[in-house]
């Protein structure tokens, strides 16, 4: 196995075509195919499946690509630093469910490190994509929650993906709504009182199992239910339709504004919000700082 072969595999996955990858790599298509065949025989894994629409990465190939990208990226950093004598920016990426406080922690971390020497990326995504990003090295850290309902299924998926879940905080369940909502001034709200208002939740795409829902009580039969893809749309629906969603109760007015509030839901449900990381992989200094910023929200988490 060579760095060149790893670069070839990455190029093929990006092009979804042997001919196009060969053109971009400035080698012949037969030479590229032969190199790929040698690699697959050496590691005993089929990395790509040939179809009428080009080449598709196999599930085993996706995992291999995660490692290949990391190795090639590290090699490029070493090459640039010690051969070309370049100063390369350090990188940090985090993927998360839609938590404003997790974005706020990211903002504070970036402010402290600055962007002259560092390159940052943040991805607000569907639950399954958060897991895949960490598994495939797209992100160093993934932020999501567990509760009694989804814990067994998601923990099994973490283990199969070579990931570990680390608790950050525990919190109760709150109803998130705009301050003009008829129930906004209540100290506590029962689910039955919400029936005349639309429940808002984030669309989970192809992986729309209840276990992947970002909102607790995902199996509850709401009379009105609207799914959205992004935070801005969700907030607009809260105002326009008196909609609501269920959340951790940790509000960041600096980012979302002061027009929204969280009211305790009458429920004994508990959310455990934590971070995912690759098993056996040390967290970088940037990652450690980000986790320190997240930990500051522990005092804002409410169980009662």
Question: Any overview of this molecule?
Answer:
- The model has no long low-confidence stretch (mean pLDDT 90).
- A five-stranded mixed β-sheet has the order 4-3-5-13-6, with helices on both faces. A four-stranded mixed β-sheet has the order 8-12-7-11.
- By secondary structure, the protein is an alpha/beta fold.
- The protein has helices at 3-15, 18-25, 29-43, 59-83, 100-113, 127-135, 151-160, 231-241, 253-256, 285-295; strands spanning 48-51, 54-57, 90-96, 118-124, 141-146, 163-171, 174-178, 188-189, 199-202, 225-228, 245-247, 260-265, 271-278.
Short note summarizing the structure:
39% of the residues lie in helices and 23% in strands.
Q: What are the segments in which pLDDT stays under 50 over at least 5 consecutive residues?
A: none
Mean pLDDT: 90
Number of strands: 13
Quickly give the structural class.
alpha/beta
Secondary structure layout plus pairing:
Elements: H1 3-15, H2 18-25, H3 29-43, E1 48-51, E2 54-57, H4 59-83, E3 90-96, H5 100-113, E4 118-124, H6 127-135, E5 141-146, H7 151-160, E6 163-171, E7 174-178, E8 188-189, E9 199-202, E10 225-228, H8 231-241, E11 245-247, H9 253-256, E12 260-265, E13 271-278, H10 285-295
Parallel strand pairs: 3-4, 3-5, 8-12, 9-10
Antiparallel strand pairs: 1-2, 5-13, 6-13, 7-11, 7-12
List keywords for this structure.
304 residues; alpha/beta; five-stranded mixed sheet; four-stranded mixed sheet; elongated
């Amino acid at each position: 196995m060579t760095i060149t072969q790893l670069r070839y595999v990455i190029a093929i996955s990006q092009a979804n075509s042997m001919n196009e990858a060969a053109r971009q790599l400035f080698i012949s298509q037969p030479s590229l195919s032969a190199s790929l065949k040698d690699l697959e025989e050496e590691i005993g894994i089929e990395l790509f499946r040939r179809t009428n629409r080009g080449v598709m990465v196999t599930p085993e190939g996706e995992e291999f690509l995660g490692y290949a990208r990391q190795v090639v990226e590290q090699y490029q950093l070493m090459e640039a630093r010690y051969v070309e004598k370049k100063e390369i920016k350090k990188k940090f990426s985090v993927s998360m469910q839609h938590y404003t406080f997790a974005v706020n922690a990211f903002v504070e971390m970036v402010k402290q490190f600055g962007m002259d020497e560092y390159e940052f990326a943040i991805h607000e995504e569907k639950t399954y994509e958060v897991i895949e990003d960490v598994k495939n090295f797209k992100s160093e850290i993934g932020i999501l929650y567990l509760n009694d309902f989804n814990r067994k299924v998601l923990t099994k998926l973490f283990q199969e993906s070579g990931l570990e879940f680390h608790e950050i905080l525990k919190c109760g369940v709150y109803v998130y709504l705009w301050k003009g909502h008829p129930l906004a001034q209540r100290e506590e709200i029962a689910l039955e009182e919400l029936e005349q208002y639309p429940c808002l939740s984030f669309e989970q795409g192809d992986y729309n199992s209840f276990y992947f829902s970002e909102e607790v009580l995902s199996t509850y039969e709401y009379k009105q239910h609207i799914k959205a893809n992004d935070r801005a749309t969700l907030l607009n629906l809260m105002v326009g339709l008196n909609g609501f969603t269920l959340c951790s109760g940790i509000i960041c007015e600096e980012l979302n504004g002061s027009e929204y509030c969280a009211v305790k839901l009458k429920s004994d449900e508990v959310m455990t919000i934590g971070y995912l990381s690759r098993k056996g992989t040390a967290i970088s200094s940037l990652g450690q700082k980000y986790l320190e910023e997240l930990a500051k929200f522990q005092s804002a988490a409410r169980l009662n």
